[in-house]
Design brief:
The protein is of the alpha/beta class. The protein folds into two domains: 130 residues, P-loop containing nucleotide triphosphate hydrolases (Rossmann fold); 64 residues. It has ten helices and five strands. A five-stranded parallel β-sheet has the order 2-3-1-4-5, sandwiched between helices. α2 packs across α5. It is globular and about 50 Å long.
Length: 209
Amino acid sequence: MLLIGLTGSIGMGKSETAKMFVAHGVPLYDADAAVHKIYAPGGAAVAPLSEAFDDILDEQGGIDREALSKHVLGNAEAMKKLEAIVHPLVGKEQLDFITQNVENNTPMVVLDIPLLFETGGKARVDVIVVVSAPYELQRERVLNRPGMTAEKFEAIHAKQVADEEKRVGADFVIDTHKGLAHAEQEVVDIIAALKDRKGSVLEKMMGKA
C-alpha cells in the first residue's frame, strides 16, 4: 500500500485539499481529527495532559485547546512535555488506520500530517505532497480565523519549516492560490500518476524489505 504524506504550513489550504483526495476515493488519515478525538471527553490524552498542565479542561471534561496553548506557546520545555504525551497516542491512531486499510487491500492512502517535515515524518511515507500558497495569502487566511492574532500566527509560523524548504522536499506541490478547480485537478493528476506505484515504507516497517 502506498503511503502519501500530505502536508503544508498553517493557512495553506491543506484541509480543503485533503477533502479532494477523499472525494476521489482515497482514504484519509487526519492528524488533527485524531488529536480532536484524544482531546475529547474520555479521550486517551485527557488524563495525562490534565496531570501535566493545570486548568486545561473544558466544561465537558475534555481538553480546552486554547487553555492548553497558553501553557506551551513560546515555552519549549512545555511543548516537549506536550509532544511526549500526544505524539505516541496520535501514532497509535495512525497505525490503526493503516492496519485497517491494509486489511481492506487499499492501494493508496493519504496521511494528512501538518508537521510532517518538523517531526521527521519524511521517512514514514512513500510520497510527499505539499500544499502551498504565497506568504501574504497564508497570513490573510490565518488572521481571518476566530481568536487568531498576528503575534500568535508569527509564533506558529516561526516554528514550522519554511514553505520554500517544504516545496524542495516534495514529490508534488499543489498551489492553492490558483483556485479550488486548479487544486482539484492537481489532486486528480497526482492520483493518476501514482495509480500503479507500489509502496515500500510499509514493507520496511514490517521487516520485508
